[in-house]
Design brief:
The structure is a homodimer of 430-residue chains.
Chain A (H helix, E strand, L loop, with lengths): L3 E7 L3 H12 L1 H8 L2 E8 L16 E2 L5 H4 L4 E4 L6 H12 L3 E3 L3 H17 L4 E2 L10 H8 L4 E8 L2 H13 L3 H10 L9 H4 L2 H15 L18 H9 L2 E12 L2 E12 L11 E9 L2 E8 L3 H16 L26 E2 L1 E8 L4 H11 L4 E9 L4 E8 L2 E2 H11 L10 E5 L2
Parallel strand pairs in A: 1-2, 1-4, 2-3, 4-5, 5-6, 9-17
Antiparallel strand pairs in A: 7-8, 7-10, 8-9, 10-11, 12-16, 13-15, 13-17, 14-15
């Protein structure tokens, strides 16, 4: 067994520089825990002069990360640049081809190129580790790959984006509308200051769902198109009405096998206020796994930030230092399954529908007639007048209804001039 | 790397026979996941004729488990007899001395003899794995040893006994008293039919606390005497009053480092009804870890039963089959720390005290005077008369108070003839 491992860290943003500091201060404990030494031989970033929270050794700095391999035999490379393509992909490929283990928190890269990178890692008999790519400090990938390894997992779901969860919780707590809370989230560092879109539209959570499915179902990472909705259209009214109904709105990522078809989704859900998932608030993440024979397992923790992310990056490091050579996707690439996609039209849920309508006779019956036409049966209906503005709000909770019926119904209702804006639809979570 | 592993299962009770069946039906998937084959070469139990749920191959049955080693080279032995000494200890020692990996769900054995067994395993360069010994199907030991490995963990606590948690939940739900709910739990198989004492008095949870501490704090398993209280003295009145106070009673196992002193406890706690831990109900287990930099991590799942237990036993098996040779207690035995015990007298909590008193003037002031004498300040007081029986119930919630003051105060109050039975004390959890 090797006694000393050469390490390179590429990317010195918030994550990379925090990690580098952790590596420096934890050298001794890492040696005690693994029996081997680590030696940081190279670091790289775009700009050596950028102001960073932690100091680093400028003598080992490379402006061009590809030069690292010419000068050093690198055993383990941390990729912390964070692009889903481009230089992130190239440096990871270069490393794997050089028989260098790779550790990355990069969900974009793994969800997009995880299959080819896993194959490449396996070919070179090195590890490609990405625990930090899903749910930050929660060791959910390790739990699925190792802790629950022989269980038949049928469903994994959870709160996978702390930004969205913070915004939804804060709208409820502060009674403020989406745009105001978003600004607050940006100030607190919970949302990207420039472009928070990838968090808010569900894309970030979706990348994590892709990775979770592959590990849970021993399959390749899917690239099928699937249902993805974010929280941008959630209004304070929806939060308030949910509250009255003893419900709470959460953005859930869900992956499950339905009749051996893969169904991956990200969308807002109404969940019971007293349910477990309904009580995961603020920036917390939570992942729930349903498997046999283990039953339901829940993992909850901080889903983002340099501290939790470093915790996962270092767990990957120690796994390698302890000599655990593993298949990146749990089983050998040739044994990975591929699943056909589940037909989203068959997705069946109770629905919360909110209509803002002109307050005049007959509008309600126009809506209920349309629902009836598409076999959507109403479980609960609340109409609240807004006399001053000559408007009314109609909230309908339906019985379970297939997605296709509700889409068809809503596209018909869109043409109704008495409905003043596109209706809000939120699925109720089972 | 070995291509075929010989396996023996010793003990064919509920756990052992379920495990054996799982091993048989999952041979193929285990081979896919690890690249190696398993071969069950020997099984052993006291009585070959006992009625069991699953069939087994009688040709490989040994009445005397020690004979197994004479006939076979066993690579991995499952110990599922379940005694904390005696034959369980002997067969595990025999196996380790034979350079056989050992996997066991036996918390009694590990909490009592884990140190010497870990040393023996390390000496023979084999694994001693016991994931299933704590919190059944929840991979908490793996999470601490691997997923959170470089974090500085300061506290681990949780609901570690499903029997007690079921009883407390069911008392609340059904409004039935302790003894009635215990009978129900026994009928449902949630409590031992013969002697449920080790669950109810906190001993079972305490063994798990011992194991958790060692892994969380990289120390030897402690054998220090410490605070252990069960749920036998919880009455329906306490459950009802907790409910009125928006609290709920849970039996918590807690281990923490306080000023570098080890403090391990098991006792009932009042927790907030809307807190996370207050919503882990029924037979579920949950473990919460506080660490830096990861923050708070929560794991929840089924804590007992053959399914969840097998899930953990097989995760240990696959870890060995994948070639992960590990130190049983996370780090090398010679690097394990030992901590001095925290002085329990300094344990400081808000307290719930319930007194049943004679309903006559002056009794309340006798109690409050005693509290004042020991510097225990009252936060809340509720007196409820029971005129018919000439009694009254006095419930007091105190401000934070050191354990020593409350003990001294209660021992003084014991002598008071107007207090009709030993007061109930339940600590409020921070």
């Amino acid at each position: 067994m090797k006694k000393k491992y050469n390490i390179a860290v590429v990317g010195l943003g918030q994550i990379g520089s925090y990690l580098l500091n952790e590596l420096n201060i934890k050298k001794k404990i890492i040696e005690v825990k693994t029996g081997v030494k680590i030696n940081i031989v190279a670091i790289s970033a775009k700009n050596i002069k950028k102001k960073r929270k932690f100091k680093f050794n400028k003598k080992i700095f490379f402006s061009n990360p590809f030069e690292i391999f010419k000068k050093h035999k690198v055993d383990i490379l941390f990729e912390a640049i964070g692009m889903s393509d481009g230089i992130s992909k190239k440096i990871v490929e270069e490393a794997l081809n050089n028989k260098t283990h790779v550790i990355t928190p990069n969900k974009g890269l793994i969800s997009k190129h995880g299959n080819s990178l896993a194959k490449l890692a396996e070919k070179n008999n090195v590890n490609l580790e990405f625990e930090a790519s899903v749910a930050g400090g929660i060791p959910i990938l390790r739990t699925i790959k190792e802790g629950l390894t022989t269980n038949k997992i049928t469903k994994v779901y959870g709160i996978l984006n702390g930004t969205c969860n913070y915004i939804l919780s804060e709208m409820e707590n502060s009674n403020q509308k989406f745009t105001d809370v978003l600004i607050k989230a940006q100030k607190l560092g919970y949302a990207e200051p420039g472009n928070p879109k990838l968090d808010l539209n569900g894309f970030d959570a979706f990348a994590k769902v892709r990775i979770l499915s592959a590990l849970a179902f021993n399959s390749k990472i899917s690239h099928q198109k699937c249902l993805m909705e974010g929280i941008e259209r959630i209004e304070l009214d929806d939060i308030k009405i949910a509250n009255q109904l003893d419900l709470r709105i959460k953005l859930l990522g869900i992956t499950e096998l339905k009749n051996d078809k893969l169904f991956e989704t990200v969308h807002p859900c109404m969940v019971g206020k007293s349910s477990y998932i309904g009580n995961v608030n603020g920036v917390m993440n939570a992942v729930i796994t349903e498997g046999k024979p283990v039953g339901e397992s829940v993992l909850q923790g901080e889903g983002a930030g340099p501290g939790p992310t470093s915790s996962s990056l270092l767990s990957d490091l120690l796994s390698i230092l302890r000599g655990n050579i593993k298949k990146p996707l749990g089983v050998s690439f040739s044994n990975l399954k591929s699943f056909k996609p589940y037909n989203v039209n068959n997705y069946t849920n109770s629905l919360y529908l909110r209509f803002v309508v002109r307050d005049k006779p007959g509008v309600l019956s126009q809506i209920t007639n349309s629902l009836a036409k598409f076999n959507i049966s109403v479980k609960r209906l609340i109409q609240t007048p807004d006399k001053k503005n000559n408007k009314a709000t109609i909230v309908i909770i339906t019985h379970k209804t297939p997605e296709i019926n509700c889409r068809n119904c809503l596209s018909l209702l869109k043409r109704n001039k008495n409905i003043l804006k596109a209706p809000t639809l939120i699925r109720l979570f089972d």
